[in-house]
Amino acid sequence: MTTTDDDTPGLRSPRITARIGVALGVSFAICFVTGLLSHWIQHPPTWFDWISRPIWLYLVTQGVHVISGCVAIPLLLAKLAVVYPKLFEKPLLGSPARALERASIAVLVSASIFQLLTGLLNIAQWYPWSFFFPATHYAMAYVVVGALAIHIAVKLPIIRNALDGPVDRRASDRRAPSGLTRRGFLNLTWAAGGLSALAFAGQTIPLLRPVAFLAPRNGDGPQGLPINRTAEAAGVIGPATDAGYRLRVAGREVTRDMTLDDLRLLPQRTVNLPIACVEGWSVGATWTGVRLADLAALVGGDGSRGVRVISLERGLYAVSDVPAAQSADPLTLIALRLNGETLNLDHGYPCRLIAPNLPGVMQTKWVSRIEIS
Q1: Contact, 343 vs 337, CB < 8 A?
Q2: Is 0.85 topped by the overall pTM?
Q3: Does domain 5-211 have CATH number 1.20.950?
Q4: Domain 224-372 CATH superfamily
């Protein structure tokens, strides 16, 4: 028999559970799709080609990814609050169909908590674990979506019935022992979701920056841009400030070693581009430097292929493979100046990559070598 609102007094009702579940499912779906996009940009499958315009596209998709994930946190907590007694109903397993349902719920709850918690810590750049976050977060996203699909398939008749009618159906069921009505609980849940969005949305939306009270990046930093990784942390202060610094531009048959003065003598271009990071923050800035396409042309590159940019830094993000769309785009620079000033050491001095519509993690700082395919 399908459980109805009349059978479950108080807040623990399929009617309220289903409504929160729908909102949570939408948040998860948005977060999943935008997260896949970010992962594919950074680790592209062979079939995937990313575009360079509009220049604000990644800024929007990654901002939506982080905001939807943050909104999902109070929604998940609210749903657990109204269903947790049923999670431990006996028999815990029972028939094979019930065992499958219970297993899918256990996986869904644990994987969802893992995704949201680790995602939140990634925003704050705190990693109290030894696994590689991007790969693990990517894999677990499929686990969450798979478990969610099974859960929806099993519960679909109950969900349909629960959504067909008002939240407060019977006067005796309208209040929990605390005095909170079902409608009041739902409104409180929506308000918590909205507050979570505001708490972080200012990282992406400048107008909301003053109210982004939980956002770890608010635009402060040298030359008006936040810093995720300093030159000291990257271990590049010595080579980046060495008077003997050379930028090597390597083509198939021609290689050129260029001093900082050589770069300054080349035609300089100024562009306005945002830098958007996977943690959800983004800031617009004015960059001046040499077009990457012009440097490629010096060694026989024609801009039709991707370009590899290598940093003085060593480690996971020392190399960036710039897609062909960005390498040929006239807005893509090897920047020497930021907001009218010589590039700050923490922002990549002596020169750095800045390209439209790429994650900040791919905008290589302290560039030492450019390889033209």
Answers
A1: yes
A2: yes
A3: yes
A4: Oxidoreductase, molybdopterin-binding domain (3.90.420.10)
